[in-house]
Every structure is written in structure tokens, then in C-alpha cells.
Amino acid sequence: MNSTQVMGSEKKIILVTGGSGLVGQAIKQAKQQDPRENETFIFLSSKDGDLKDPAATQRIFERYKPTHVIHLAAMVGGLFNNMKHNLDFLRNNILINDNVLHNSYKLGVKKVVSCLSTCVFPDQTSYPIDETMIHNGPPHPSNFGYSYAKRLIDVQNHAYHQQHGCHFTAVIPTNVFGAYDNFNLEDGHVIPGLIHKAYIAKKEGKPLVVYGSGKPLRQFIYSIDLAKLFLFVLREYDEIDPIILSVDESSEVSIGEVAQMIADAFQLEHGIVLDSTKADGQFKKTASNKKLRGYLPDFQFMPLKEAIERTVQWFNLNYNIARK
Questions:
Q1: Is 323 a domain residue?
Q2: Strand-strand pairing, 217-218 and 253-254
Q3: What CATH number does residue 187 fall under?
Q4: Which of 223, 275, 285 is closest to 254 using CA atoms?
Q5: Residues 64, 146, 148, 160: which is the catalytic one?
Q6: Residues 5, 6, 8, 11: what is their CA dihedral angle, to the nearest 10 degrees?
Q7: Quick count: other Cβ atoms within 10 Å of Cβ 152?
Q8: How many domains are contained in the chain?
Q9: pLDDT band at 79; cut points 50, 70, 90
């Protein structure tokens, strides 16, 4: 038996870029719940090298010789950070993605699964959005730099496939949250930002102040659910076209409802207050998971209330080590 064969299945060395972040940590947990003998995971963090640097990226790939890559690494931030630094988000993410994909091609990686975001979709569009609509118009102006850099991964995937036969694909998660998120008050996303604010409000005996009207709608996916779906895509999904990884449309909730769930999880005595002088961002980004449901009709997502309670519990227990 060839050394790359284990019980009839090839050995996989799976390199996870951005492996210390929210989704990477969740994949660590999910792969322990559903282990495969032939899979070895290597989780990279920024300490392993700067993926914006071609030489550093090449050294990482030559060192680990991955057969598969889950590409999570990105320069990310919340609404207000994106609005201030669109050029930085554009340039840095283009550099990271090009280095990861080109080294994957050069070293003969069999499959790359990159992580996009629903912000890649056009600002002016019909709903629900689906995988065919990515390039149908400009993205929302607030974060166009990040959005175009992420869109280009889809363009690169198809170009590498057309020119070199590479199996590079991408997933498009809706708003992810969970343990190991970025809970920074300035540039965190909605749920982690609100969790940190609620933690402070609880300490100070004040209400939770929510920026905006509380009316915008979002689909939130718990990081562990997303990680399980990532493993499905890595192991089973054969298309180059991306796939949306999202809860069902019926699970869409308003920011106000989410804030209330967070306030309840902290048992805040003074509830929530809406600051409607602050910007709302896009009103909705409803995504269709019809393609995913075609593959996994019976996949069960954790109820949002329970997932938020687990995340609040993690933040309370890990306040000192949480990114904030």
C-alpha cells in the first residue's frame, strides 16, 4: 500500500489559514466531533507568517506541503472600520488571497475552500440573494474595498480552474458569531460588539445601547454550525461555483431582536435602548440556502437563542483572553 493511502482513502494534510480566529477555532471543535483517520489539520495564525508577503506564504506552503487548504485569513472589521479604510481592506485582502491561491496552484494542492461573505453581493438587488448574483452590480459603498477583494476570489477560482484545472471553490456564510470572535467595541461585528457592550452595561447597571433603529434584518449562523458545513464542503462539494452557507430564510431576525436575546442572556435589568442617530448599514441581505438544502436537506442549525447564550457564557468565562 502506497504511504499516501490509508484504508483506501488518501491522506489529507489540510492547511487552515486564519486558523486561530472565530471560524478556525470552530473547525477545530467540529473536526473532533466528526474525525477522519486520513485527515491531518494544521491551523495557522498570524504568528506563522505574513500572508501578504509572497515569500513568507511560499515558505509556509513548502514547510507543510498541504493537499487541501481552508482559506479563512483576511483583514476584517465592522461597518465603521470598513467605511474609514476601504483601500486597506482592498489591497491587503487581494495580496493575501493571491498568495494563498497561487501557492496552492504551484504546490499542486488538490482543493481550496475559501471564505467569502454576503457583503460580496450587489447593494441594489432582488431578494433572496443566491450564488448566481455575486457580480450583478456594485457592492454596498460602506465596505466596497473588502467586498471587491472577496469577489475576486470567485473570479480567481474560475480562472485557475479554466487555465490549470485547479479545484478551488468558495463558501459564502451569512453573519457568523461564536466563541473566539472579535468582541472589539469599535470594529467588532454585530453580535460580538453587542455582547461586549452588554457585559459593560451589566457591570455598570445600565441599559444596553444599540446603534441604529434596530430594524435591519440579518441571518446569523453559529460558528460551530458553519464549521460542520465547511467540513462538508471540504469533503463532499465538487463545484467551482460558490455555495451560500446560511440558516433558512425563515430564521432571519432584526438587530433589535438579537439585542434583546443578548440582554436576556446577561439578565440585564435595564433592557435595551436604541440610538437612532447612528447609521444602520444595509437594511437586509436575505440569502437563499436553497443550494445548500439541495445537498443537506436535514441539516439542523442550533436555535439562535441557545447559540447566543453559549457565546455569552464563553465570553463571561474567557473575558480576559477574548479579543476585544
A1: no
A2: antiparallel
A3: 3.40.50.720
A4: 285
A5: 146
A6: -60
A7: 18
A8: 1
A9: low
